[in-house]
Design goal:
The chain has 163 residues and is mainly α. The protein has one domain: Jann2411-like fold (Orthogonal Bundle), CATH 1.10.3300. Helix content is 48%, strand content 7%. The protein has six helices and four strands. It has a two-stranded antiparallel sheet. A two-stranded antiparallel sheet has the order 3-4. Strand 3 and strand 4 form a beta hairpin. The longest helix is centred in the last third of the chain and has 19 residues. The termini are far apart.
Length: 163
């Protein structure tokens, strides 16, 4: 079972789908729930999902001050080129065909266009995806009680050891 770091900082729908996809991997202990996500969403393209997940994670890390990686941008761009988008009867954009993995990518791209993607970040400590609800978009950790406390404690101990 995945940790619930995201509960207080769950992204609003539909960006929540991207957050849940990204949080199928726990960088701290190596847990990986991508197989379960693929099965629950009826996606058979495991290789593409395993390539897209770290590329999207690199984009949310870039939202938290890390430089964007060109190879990640290339992966997302190549995946985006495979999407087929049209207009629905109400005039809104509509993803034609595709599966849940394509929907995650379409949501991420739409959020990039409308600016809401900038609030989806990856924690500087554990790389868990979280939504930044702060008014000035300055949150850097998934949880102040978990990762924020860990980082501040490490820094304090390092300063004390340097004396």
């Amino acid at each position: 079972m995945s940790p619930r770091y995201d509960l207080p900082k769950a992204a609003p729908e539909p960006l929540r789908r991207v957050q849940l996809f990204l949080n199928t991997e726990n960088h701290e202990n190596g847990d990986d729930w991508l197989d379960r996500w693929l099965a629950e969403n009826g996606v058979a393209r495991e290789a593409e999902a395993r390539e897209l997940r770290p590329a999207l994670r690199a984009l949310v890390l870039a939202n938290n001050g890390f430089p964007p990686r060109p190879e990640a941008l290339a992966v997302v761009d190549a995946a985006a080129a495979r999407l087929t988008v049209g207009l629905g009867p109400d005039g809104r954009p509509l993803l034609r065909g595709g599966d849940a993995l394509d929907e995650v990518l379409a949501v991420a791209l739409t959020a990039l266009l409308d600016g809401s993607f900038r609030r989806l970040k990856a924690c500087r400590n554990c790389h868990w995806a979280f939504y930044d609800y702060s008014p000035n978009r300055s949150a850097t950790w998934c949880s102040m009680q978990l990762c924020g406390n860990r980082r501040k404690t490490r820094a304090y101990r390092a300063r004390r050891a340097a004396r």
